[in-house]
Give the backbone structure.
Amino acid sequence: MASVGEAPVAERLLTAGVTAWTGPNTPETTREFLQSEVRKYQEVVQRTGVRLER
């Protein structure tokens, strides 16, 4: 299985517009990342008033 840190895989991801995470992968770093994403998109939702439809 290829690693996202290997050059060919990383290049394909970049071509697809994805930046691979190659930093530490711990519960703490995952929690920090998810919390930062929630804060980022929470601001966008509040500014735009976007709502989910069911």
Summary: Residues 24-54 form one domain. The mean pLDDT is 86. DSSP finds two helices and no strands in the chain. The radius of gyration is 16 Å.
